[in-house]
Amino acid sequence: MTPLLLALGASLAWGIADFVGPLISRALGILRVLFWAQVGGVLALVLAIAIRGDGPAGWAVLFAICASFGGMLGLFAYYRGMATGAMSVVAPIAGVSAVIPVVFGIATGDNPSPAQIAGIACALLGVGLASVEHHEGQRRVAAGVGLALLAALGFGFYFPWMHAAGKVDFWWASLVFRTTALVIVAGAVAARRPSLRLTPRDLTIVVAVGIGDTIGNVLFAASSGHGLVSLTAVLASLYPVVTVLLAAAVLRERVAPMQRAGIVLTLAGVALISV
Question: Which residues contact 71 (CB under 8 A, 6 or more apart)?
């Protein structure tokens, strides 16, 4: 039960961070938010590991480097998708990343249940419904859907690599992941040269987002020690539920009935995959 609770805790931390981060990035800029969020996450992990006082348990924590490339691709696409489309549409589609660890688990020996198979079908159908919006009597692909699918791909490849790294040492795996993410974002900042200046208030919020995202990374990596990737990764992928609820409560987002059906079906699919 402990790995499942840790994975669910990761989904809660990610759900909150993935609502606040994209929301403030609409005003502050994506790269600026991502940069300071990574700084906050790295500093928090350095402090935690210094207090812990142990070195890495094995070289396999370096698998987190691969996880970071997938994770940061997913996060950047996710933020961009949130900036151009409705959070209540983008978040559930990104949550379909759960399909990838299930497929990976099957390929490496896991046997999916009928419920998981039904969940994959529901998630894919839900993506199709959530992706279509009505505009002046015509149907068209909703804004941000392409970026949401790219985010799902990036997040999906994050899970197996981070699962492998977390099984060895979840603290050091998280630090390797976050440090690599900071290097990736710093490279993008060097190329684009956006302003990084923030007011103390904004900096505090952005750093808190980074710490929240890092807590999700640590909890998921910790869940990997005793849980199957096809289960823990999918439970961690329930974060869109939190994001959608926050978007409805705080932003009062409204979507078309067909899109609402797609959102519900997508979330139901993610839940079924975890059975």
Answer: 154, 155, 158, 162, 177, 181
The residues with which 135 forms a beta bridge, in sequence order, are 138
Tokens standing for 180?
């690599």
Phi, psi of 189 (to 5 degrees): -65, -40
CB-based contact 96:123 (threshold 8 Å): yes
Contact 168, 57 (CB under 8 A): yes
Find the helix or strand (DSSP H, E) in which 134 lies: strand 132-135
Q: Residue type for 116, please?
A: Q
HSE-up (13 A, CA, CB side) for residue 155: 34
Distance CA 65, CA 5 (A): 25
- Judge contact between 76 and 35, C-beta under 8 A: no
pTM for the complete prediction? Answer: 0.84
**Which parts of 96-247 fold into alpha helices (H)?**
99-107, 114-130, 145-168, 170-192, 200-223, 229-236, 239-246
Phi and psi (nearest 5°) for 241? -60, -45
pLDDT for 89 equals 77
Question: In terms of Cα–Cα distance, which of 161, 136, 159 is closest to 60?
Answer: 161
Which token pair is 132?
């279509």
Cα 175 to Cα 50, 212, 224: the distances in Å are 11, 14, 16
* Alpha carbon distance 78, 192 (integer Å): 19
pLDDT in tens, 82-134: 888 778 778 888 878 878 887 887 787 777 788 878 887 887 787 767 766 55
**DSSP code string of 139-152:** EEEPTTHHHHHHHH
Q: Are 64 and 234 in contact (CB under 8 A)?
A: no
C-alpha 250/C-alpha 151 separation (Å) is: 23
CA distance 88 to 224: 29
